[in-house]
Model the fold of this input.
Amino acid sequence: MAGRAHHVFLLAAVPSMLAGVFRPVRDARAASAQEPDVIFADGSIYTLDAAGARAEAIAVKDGRILAVGTTQALAALAGPKTRTVALQGRTVLPGFIDAHGHMAALGSLKNGEADLADTTSFDDLLRRIEARAKKARPGEWILGSRWTEGRWDQKEFPTHARLSAITPNNPVLLWRVDGHSSLANRKALALAGVTRQTPNPPGGEILKDKDGEPTGMLIDAAQGLVTSHIETAGSLRDNLLAAQTACLSVGLTGVHDAGLSVGEIALYRKLCDEGMLKLRVYGMVRGGGEGLDYIRSHKPLIGYGGGRFTLRAVKCVADGAMGSRGAWLLQPYSDRPGYSGLCAQEPRVIAAVVQTALANGYQVCTHAIGDRANREVLDVYAAALKNRNGADDRLRIEHAQLLALDDLPRFAQLKVIPSMQPTHATDDMPWAEDRVGPERIKGAYAWASLLRTGARIAAGSDFPVTGENPLHGLYAAITRQDYQGKPDGGWHPEERMTREQALRAFTLDAAFAAFEESSLGSLEVGKLADFAVFDRDIVQCDPRELLTARAMLTVIAGEVVYRRE
Done:
């Protein structure tokens, strides 16, 4: 076997991690002493290692990468029990990691909730809900999501009158695309006891008309008045498994599930025990109530179920969303004078959660969208880090959508990770400047500016707010255009990522945000064999092709967990 050593290699250093010229530099005698379980051969592999390595084949042993090199060299390592999977020249990349998604909500959408993302008007939405109402049993809840008035000719929030007229026998709740506001019909409001006398709950708003009557629009915490009454036929288990299928089919091998209940944590563990969880899930427990009780009494759970489930993070929520005008701003909204949004959790409350979490070994990930919310969270983090003696805490801000320009450098200075979703920018661009005006928009979705300061962006989708396909996130990150290629040159193109930066954000830096960079994010010897195989070269193709490219295989720990027929 020693005579074959010079054929197995990683690549020598090259200017870009995507460049790569085959050049043998690695002795393979250690690898050749072991028999691979499986060899994936005849591919075009981008390893995303620091040297910019390219390869043709990957050998896997016990779920980890044993060797990377040419097909010929790795074939020489094969033993009588080694299986070979032919990649047929297709492009291979490390498995994509979505650094912020919502598995249960995605599964609910896949399992029959009305998807209203492509509605072109309120009339269109009403037609779809009326069709569902005709098939629903009296009293059965009708749920839908992902509508946005930003894509309609009428840009104002809808009211419930016409919706209530076509659904007299069914409670209805329809979430806006951001998930931070929803439209309820009269029956749903009645079930929840919401009337003109109902006060706004802390961190929420019940929108009312000029006569003081609820319009049906519920903002942030006000949604809880209705959601606590929802009854559905679908199970959480079914929803998580449906979400897993959807994620695997687009080349995702990992998801950071942002905001778990204690019940969801227990279910993830059960799915691991049954061998049903194939996707790697990095969980964030909700930072309040039972979630805080949980972290006080449970140590972080790392790599449960053969590395499929980790719970070592806590999720806080500082504000709402810009689309619903619930994001907490330093100055009032440009299109709602005198109103600056909502504070969901007071900074002092978040500070207490941070203290508890860090003391118990948990990372903290805080939702902050508005510039006031981001500043307050950065201030809380700065105070907490003073007493940490340089500990590797990797505190995160989820979304970081609108930043005061003075706060941009603070992420790198504090080593805070901005966990951002590229498709939010391209979804929000029709109305975002209306919310905050031409000056503040300069600090919105500021990916390139953050990267220039030395921050590491962990990229995700926030599914089901947007779709779960990471290639659509790559497209948004490098073009800042919608799916029709508008606007020409991109929206605020100075904030585009390079393709290399975007790939890192969905692989290596997403892994870093979960303390998993030593095992995930690149295809290197000793790391877990998580990767996806695509039908075209997504590193070199025209950006528009990212919208139609498809994952052909998804592999986790060397196991093919998805195969496109």
